[in-house]
Batch of 3 targets.
Target 1
Amino acid sequence: MHVVIVGAGSVGRSIARELLSHDHEVMIIDKQPAAMRVAQVADADWLLADACELSTLAEAKVDECDVIVAATGDDKVNLVVSLLAKTEFGVPRTVARVNNPKNEWMFDESWGVDVAVSTPRIMTSMVEEAVAVGDLVRIFTFHQSGADILELTLPPDSPLIGTRVGQVDWPQDTVLAAIVRGTQPIAPSIDDTLEVGDELLIVTGRDVDEAELLRVLINPSPDEGTGIVDETTGLPV
């Protein structure tokens, strides 16, 4: 895979080193001479130029790349690079770094962004995931589909403790993608039993009511059942 990275800061260089270690071809573009630390990523191709200029992107042959990553510390630059790459050069995949969470709403297909990566939001999610038990934590949102990846750690009082995955009355457009038990990831089957402390990774459609999902998994009202389906009748219990 051929990847062009705009922004030679610590983020851009780290991404480049990781991609190179997986045998991908990488070019790094930056307009600041001080950022051209070629020796730190010697296996990449480097270009000192302004990536917001069409001539620079043409020189970098971005029309031949598979992915362009806009990883600068300036949201305006990342948006312009994504838009030019998508509309002028037809780059198949654009990934843009979001520095200010207030700007997240702009990082969508209208600006040519296929995947927006918000470092502050990811860090917030990781902090919440580390301390939250019994709360849904949004880990990632797919901008094209609007689907979410959610994480939930089952508390001791969850009605689902001791039940099998196949018995859970999951809301529509909700899929249990994985169970993490201790350090062991598990591909869930209908026969797996849920245990206290299980981390559930759940994929939901854009219209799923997270409050309803949390009710099913954690604390259903007494007159609304337990979120568990009787295997014989197929009815909630």
Target 2
Amino acid sequence: MTMSNTPMAANPLTRAVLEIDEYASGLGWDQPARLFALVDTARLRTQEPALAAQLGLDEESTTTGLTPIEQDEVPTDKALDEFLGTIAWPDAVVGCALTVERLMLPPSAESQVPEGLSDARLAKWVASHPDRQEVRMTVAVLRDGSRDSAVRLREKDSPTEVLTGPELVPGLADALKATFED
């Protein structure tokens, strides 16, 4: 996937997160979760030249950084954390990323959450809250523990309105990092 709006000054992991966010944005909203392997672009070109060419990475200018490769569909009949617990990556994969849409409440709504709700009832309560926001979160981690995230609000769906940072979605980053542990 070749992305046009990704700042070249960003580090390779941030660029990969923003590339995936832009790709997901092009698919529109109300999409299923998507999982990506992150591979070293230079290594991919050397070890898998046909795949690199298929991905448009056979040009010299694309020899550095990370290449996101979308994996098979994320199952919808299993909780995301359960699914992530079943993943084992081959050595050629240096990191992984996940993009997922969720409803989010502002911090001011935390005090309003009724106590003792089941997960299903809590989800229903959040979905009906007047201050809820639809967000798309893209989170990536590397084997060495590096992480980065991008969060896009549906109501501000613009590449210039994407928040980035390593600690925006720490729980999801931890779950992705666990996919690399033995």
Target 3
Amino acid sequence: MTTDAADDRTATSKSQLAYEWLRDRIVTHRFTPGYRLVLSQLATELGVSTVPVREAVRRLEAEGLVTYEKNVGAQVALVDEGEYVTTMQTLAVVEGAATGFSAPLLTAEDLAKARAINQRMRDSLEHFDPRRFTELNEEFHSVLFLRCPNEHMTDLVRRGWSRLRMLRDSTFSFVPGRAVQSVAEHDHLMHLIETGADPVDIELAARKHRTATLDAFLDSQHPPRES
């Protein structure tokens, strides 16, 4: 066997190893939907160069398990887009209603806490981490519906969040540009609450805020075709 043939066989085996290793972590949800696949980090963990990792990622992309977005890179694909859409639509309704019921009962301390969290979200935009941004986003919204007197409704909201975590790592991994708009919409929600707006208007604003994220995601997954 020539040296070149041996090198080719070694490269192929490394690519296969990387493929099997990545695929296992995706299908077992250790790498959740939206998880960014940074080639250099994966190569270091596997003890190989980035070449076999890149080849493995391309194979997984062909299988639909990985997607590639410009300015974002490779990431684990959303498992079930239909379920994600229906979960987001449901969450928009129940979270919006819970926020509307809660708004008149929020204290000055609650509002200050929400403002502080949103400021942390704004500060994080410079060195954006989608997963951390999502965690802060949940903290922010949990404050806004904290005082909702309907425990069944808040339970439905938390169930919706749990289902989303099973479906994707972070929507903001797919649409990082949405994060800036989200922070601005949080400011608008806070303004409505602090100025004593009608709870129905607050509910609708919270619902629109959630569906705007869904719309941004769908636009990223199905861009309009060039004519």
